[in-house]
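hi! just following up on the protien thing from before. the input was this:
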Amino acid sequence: MCFIKEIITKYLQTSGNSLGSTELNIIGSNVCSLDLSTLTTITANSISDANFLNVATCSAEQKRILYDISSTSFSSYRAHSTDFYNVIKSYLGGAPLSDIVALSTQNISMDINIFRSLDINVITTLTVTNVQGLMGDQLQDLKLFENDTVIQTWVNMQTQSELDTLGVGLINSRTYPTTAQPATDNTATSASGTASPDSTTSPGTDSTPASTMSDVTISAFCAMYSNYSYTVAFLQTEVVSDEMKKMILPCVWKMALSSNVTSEVNLWFDVLLKNYLRFLTRNLISPIEVQSASCQAFQKLVFYMGNNFTYNSTEFGPEDVYNTIRSYLSTGSGARCYNPSDPELNSTSWFFNYIGSFVKFITLNDLTSFISTSQAEVFWEDQANLELFNNSTLAVDVRNYYITQLFTVNPSFSLFKLSGVLLCSTDIPSAVYMSLNEANTMAILDMRNEFCNGIEDPQAFAVLASNIKTITEEIFVTLGGAASGLSNTQITSVPPTVLISSLSTLGSVTTWGQDQANIIIQSITSSGYQINSAAVLESLGTLVVGVPSALLEKIPASELLHASRNPAFVSSMLQAPELLQETFVTKIISVDTRLTEVVQNVPDALATKIPPSQLVFSEGSPNISVINKKSWTKDQATMFLGTLVESDFDTEQLSTSVLQGFTCTSVQKVPKTKIKQLIRACRPRTGRSKVELTEPQLTCMYNLIEEDLDQNFIDYPSDMLLYFRIQDVQESNCRSYFSALGAADFSVASSLLNKGQQLFSEARTCLGITGLSLSRDHLDVLGNMVCTLNSSYIQNSDPLILENLKACTDLSENQVAAMETLLLSGETQYGYETKCFKLMPCFVLAKCWSKFLMTVP
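and the predicted 3d structure came back as:
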């Protein structure tokens, strides 16, 4: 697998390298494989100078980042709406609602495919008027694409009366009442035609359900509230049915959101609408409804939706609320709703006020887009904000960014003001730890032990440990996992008595280096500590890796056998030097050298240390289930496979590490029927790793059963098919043979046999291939055989050949050159932007990338 992100990351780590326009042209659509943090490093100039990027496969977050950058990049075009649309349209999939609505007034005539590529959350909130303004001369295309899921979704969210104004014949497929009952006779019509309440009746006290009212009736119903002077008193005192509350809420919602005095906002949310807010709908909390809300109302809405609202029976969830928050806060430049000169908007608890508990959904891109670095300086140290970001559910890069900004603004910020997971950030500068005295170091270590269990930070460990001058047993307890940050010199200076009394603590540290463990063990044994029993050995925990093999030799084998049943001890032993592992296994074997007992006694994970010469079953029936649990080397499996298959069991049970031991010698006494079963057990199987077999093993398999081959080719190991003769394949079955052969690793066959050329010649005849051009169908059948083809086929075949070549483990220089020529020409259906990425095997990718780097000034 090609690790495109890793290659680009490594390139960017080189001083002076960045994702400029040349790099972006080469990366092309593979820009969608990059991390969000990498995308944020792209500059506006790079986007403006690069070819248009294909962002179709990018995630919504990636599209937002690329749109934000390109919007800045092409800002000089804004004065000419058509020009701006033409340069920005490739990136509009990441545009927020406000920008799309703004475009709808610019007479741009948006292409239907660009419209379909917009964020679905944006599309579904666009009004008929918005869409009419966007599409312009292309409006008729909505009818052509009316069966498209995106278009259907938007259409079904509009009323039929609104759709009819477009004049293109769009039909809402949802069912609506065709007639409506009048609310009551409580209203009269004014001279201007506006419905208004009579002098004695409050609006909304009738029992007409919302589902029976037409759009016109609802509009008139809401008009009563906008004109009704006693609306506030009505909401505060009148008791109405739930059905009426659902009708009333949309009528007064904009009034509540438009209030810009904190006391009035509190009145709306805490009193007037207290019994109505549970009927909020997806539409009422959508970006388009909330976008014009006052800052005071928006802050109250965020608090209410995060602390008081119940989502159990709603058509929307917290994620939808956050999408609205993101849209609201992304409008304009800088931190919206922050004004240091306005007493109602000057709170530095900005994140707490305007994001609140929805912070768990925030991404790094969101965070950086909401605020400007200079403006946010006053936010980072705010205690409410700190407590908000002290949240383990937040993305790690978000927390780390917060910490980076915090210490950039105030390098001397006290660690004691941090709490919880923020203290665990690996982005806390080392200088901050170095400035601590020993007492404060211990206090911080205590806090880290409480909040950062399992989070390893070697750099922090080393700096914190270096602050400690005198190490005691209590210090070791406090250090915990950070003890591995001690230098060899510090460990050497610790009195052996302290080390001995601290063994239970030291043995639980999982990050010891080999040298550190060696020093500790040497120190305690030199002072008289005896490692003379398995119990003592187990008590060392992870320090067992530092025990000399000579000491292990002195411990009774029976005791070591008992220790081998301790999973924690075996886990520690797996980290030990190979000599110590081999000594341990040898001691266990010595307890009972009968092979059945050896296989039973040696831990599964250490079975590879059993000498192959001892894996010969001379008596007793091997336990297949025990053998299958262990990992074996090929040499080991060869020793016991023959004896194993002599017993009565289903060969399908055998693990891949056992089957890799198949050789002519190991099965020389096995009946032909059993041999066929073994060979079939080596076939490719879904959810199971491949049985790795060499050429001698594969030719052995073929020779043993060549007189009894059948035509069900998928029942053989793919690589074994390399050694079939064309005479073994019935002409009518040749296609299925080559299709099964396509999964083989052609590099297994010796180059002296010239298998690739021979088999391809036979495949040409079978598939009717003429000339140098291979069709998509040919390539589907040939599979990995393309790895053997010369450069002429690579350059003249269907571009699918590039996908097939990804599986090749090695290619000649001519093949690599042909791939580079094909890709870099930009003449394939993949386009110029594909370049090396995504298609090439890793070793070819490296060559192509290196060649590119040499061209970068």
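Confidence is low (pLDDT under 50) at residues 175-214, 830-839, 845-857.
DSSP finds 50 helices and two strands in the chain.
cheers
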